[in-house]
Specification:
Helices cover 33% and strands 23% of the residues. The protein contains ten helices and 13 strands. The chain folds into two domains: 168 residues, Peroxisomal Thiolase, Chain A, domain 1, CATH 3.40.47.10; 150 residues, Thiolase/Chalcone synthase (Peroxisomal Thiolase, Chain A, domain 1). The protein starts with a strand and ends with a strand. The strands form four sheets. Strands 1-7-6-4-5 form a five-stranded mixed β-sheet, with helices on both faces. A four-stranded mixed β-sheet has the order 8-13-12-11, with helices on both faces. With 329 residues, it is an alpha/beta fold. The radius of gyration is 19 Å and the shape is globular. The protein binds oxa(dethia)-CoA.
Length: 329
Amino acid sequence: MGIRIAGTGSYLPEKIRTNADIEKLVDTNDEWIRTRTGVEERRIAGPDETASTMAIKAAEKALAQAGVDGRDIDAIVVATISPDYIFPNTGALVQNYFHCKQAFCFDLSAACAGFVSSLEVGFSLMRSFPDKYRNVLVCGSDKLSVIVDWTDRNTCILFGDGAGCALLQNDGTDSPDSILASSLHADGGYTDVLRIPAGGSKAPACHETVWNRDHFIYMEGRETFKLAVNAMVSSSEEVLAQAGISIDQVALVIPHQANLRIIDAVAKRLGIGEDRAFCNIRYYGNTSSASIGIALDEACRTGRIKRGDLVLFTSFGGGLAWGSMLIRY
Ligand code: UT7
């Protein structure tokens, strides 16, 4: 059908929080953070910045690159675990900004697998209803700084804020679609290793949940780490096998930016060198739903990938939810 990524965009807040800044908050140090995670600094959104405002700024760039007017967007999917509100959905706020009143909008909650999951959903809508959905905006946007416990050294060192977007367009030609293969998974048996314990219908907000700091991200790091590497490698192998493509043909692997050691371990197991595993965790930390969108935009704009290149996304996060996708950019 000719469905392709016509434009990408990203937005990172201006304020930088370095490891030295975090040393003042919890018992940690720059060397530990750098060697155990690869993170040196992360971006922190301002009080007026939210998941929707960051998504809008990233989307403006994606639309400009694609040469598409915001009013012509037919559907908006926003991957986020830090929406402006529980409802209305963040997509509706983005829709209002772009005046695309016909657009169908929703949020998708798959944590760090959110961007790849949203791409899958966006592409699926376009394939199922080609006349209805010609321009679909896929965003990943998270303001994690407000759901991170800045007294918990196991998590606060890792996360940052930002947004990444892709504008999917059906150009109506008979050229092949960009997505060649995908493999998405979940295992709800692991909800306890990575979650926000309160604020939903199971443990609604009350004085006790606030007192217990249950509205912040809780993560069993070591367990998550082990599961992440295996899941990212196996789902990557699945998509390569599905498409009949060897890893040598892939120009760039864009992994979710969770930890430099995870990225290195995945690259090693896939048999690729550092030059083919995209990594910007040093500057932004883990931006959850946004990380692959931000990385894709950087890779495109810096010439790391060119039109026609094969690109492999691989993701892993709370749910547990994980998966990979092979595209021809
Ligand atoms: O994006 C969603 C998915 N998320 C992930 O994939 C994250 C996966 N996990 C990780 O990235 C790593 O597990 C962490 C970075 C969270 C932790 O690194 P680790 O190498 O697994 O450390 P650990 O939890 O096994 O802790 C090792 C030691 C402990 O001390 P003892 O018990 O050995 O004395 C911790 O108390 O390091 C200590 N530690 C710290 N020390 C200084 C834990 N956090 C810190 C810290 N600074 N911030």
